[in-house]
Structures are given as C-alpha cells and as structure tokens.
Amino acid sequence: LSPGAKMGCFTFIKVMMILFNLAIFLSGGALLGVGIWVKVDGESFVKIFGPLSSSILQVVNVSYLLIVIGAILLVIGFLGCYGAQKESKCLLMTFFSVVLIIFIAEVAAAVVALVFTGLAETLLSGLVTPLLKEQYGMNTTFTEIWNVTMTKVHCCGLNNYTDFNNSYFYEKHSSYPMQCCDMVDRGIATSCHPHLCGCLLQGCFKQILEEIRTNAGVAGGVAAGIAALEIAAMAVAMYLYCQLDKK
C-alpha cells in the first residue's frame, strides 16, 4: 500500500476505535446508573422487569454487579476512546492489558462454571439459606422478591422447602410459605405442609439452572460474540499501537 492508503487505513481504524469505545463508555454509564437505581429502589426494578429480574436478584446482588460492570466499561471506554484520539501508546497498551485480563477472567469463569456447578450451589446455599431463615417474613422487600420468584419460577427456597425449617417465618406461622405448595392445592389449603399440599416444589437454584441450560445456546452465542468483540478490540488497539511507531 502507498503511504497515503496506509494513512487512510490508520485514520479509518482510529475513528472506528473511538466510536466503538464511545459506545462502550456510554453503555457503562447507563449500567452504572441502573445499578445505583437497583441499589436505591429494588422493588421498582422487579416490577418493571418482571420475574426474571427477581430470580436473578436472589442469585447475585444485581445492584453491585451492575455498578462494577458499569465502572469497568467506563474505564475501558475511556482508555480506548481517549487513547485512540490522543494517539497515546501508554493508554492504548493499558486498554489492551485491561481487555486481555477481562478476557482471561471470563474464560476462567466459564470453565469454573462448567466444572464446579456443584461447588457454586454449595456456596450459594451457605450464603442465601441463612438469609431466608432470618429475613423471609421479616424484611418486606426481601420477602416480596422471594414471593415473586417462587410464584413465577414455580420453586421453593434456594434448595427446597427445608430451607425454611427453623426459620423466622416457620416459627411465626408454623407453616411454609404458600408459594411452596402445589399450584393445584394452594386454593384449598390454609397452610403449607407436606401432608396438606401434596407436593412441595423443588428449589429455585435448580429451576434457574434448568432455565440456563435450556437457553445455553443463546447464552453461548452471546458469550462468543462478546469474546469476538474483545479479541477484535485488542487486535485494533495493538495495530494502532504498532502503527504509531511508524508515523
């Protein structure tokens, strides 16, 4: 290629790098804002986005997750956009390093998720089950979110109905939550017990895990797309970095 063509190619890639990272920066700001909103007013988040959001809200702390992801995207977007605009080798290399670290972490997390699903269930059980015993029936927001989750996902507790044994709710009402009863018998029974309800639903973790497995193809496609974008971003950043030595 002629020097003019090379310069034109460099300029085009630089502009695309700026626009792409500007979009990432704005997306990060939006996620950060949503994360703060969920932290301040979680009930409105559940009402607007429905049962799926309430299910996710029990497995991870959505507000902190969104805040962290939003902050990371803000940093990445700034490094990529400003680094390309100012043609700063330091910022471009920092951008490359941050994206590479995130890419490696995602691959490691995917491997861990596939191999150690049982361990994840054990850890979640150790964290969530004590909260169910202490907060369900006492904390209004926590109780409402779990009621929506158990009703819409057709599940009971994190593992099963025994998560409510010796809980604040059971000691107060001498009964399991009505959401744990079989849908057919719920209109008949005035309290929820195995011998009255006939069937106590399985735990929410298993139900959510089944949903994830059912939609594994979609999730895998999204993950592959994100990985491809990250690889492309690293390749472009390295191209700009190397071309700056030749200018």
From TrEMBL:
It holds the Pfam family Tetraspanin. It is found in: Lysosome membrane; Membrane. It comes from the Eukaryota. Keywords: Glycoprotein, Lysosome, Membrane, Transmembrane, Transmembrane helix. Its main location: membrane. The keyword Aminoacyl-tRNA synthetase does not apply. InterPro entries: Tetraspanin/Peripherin, Tetraspanin_animals, Tetraspanin_CS, Tetraspanin_EC2_sf. The chain crosses the membrane at residues 12-38, 58-79, 91-116, 218-242. CDD domains: uroplakin_I_like_LEL. GO terms for cellular component: lysosomal membrane; plasma membrane. SUPFAM superfamilies: Tetraspanin. It is a multi-pass membrane protein. Structural component of specialized membrane microdomains known as tetraspanin-enriched microdomains (TERMs), which act as platforms for receptor clustering and signaling. Participates thereby in diverse biological functions such as cell signal transduction, adhesion, migration and protein trafficking. Regulates neuronal differentiation in response to NGF by facilitating NGF-mediated activation of NTRK1/TRKA receptor tyrosine kinase and subsequent downstream signaling pathways. Plays a role in the inhibition of TNFalpha-induced apoptosis. Interacts with SLC19A2. Interacts with NTRK1/TRKA. Belongs to the tetraspanin (TM4SF) family. This is Tetraspanin. The gene is Tspan1.
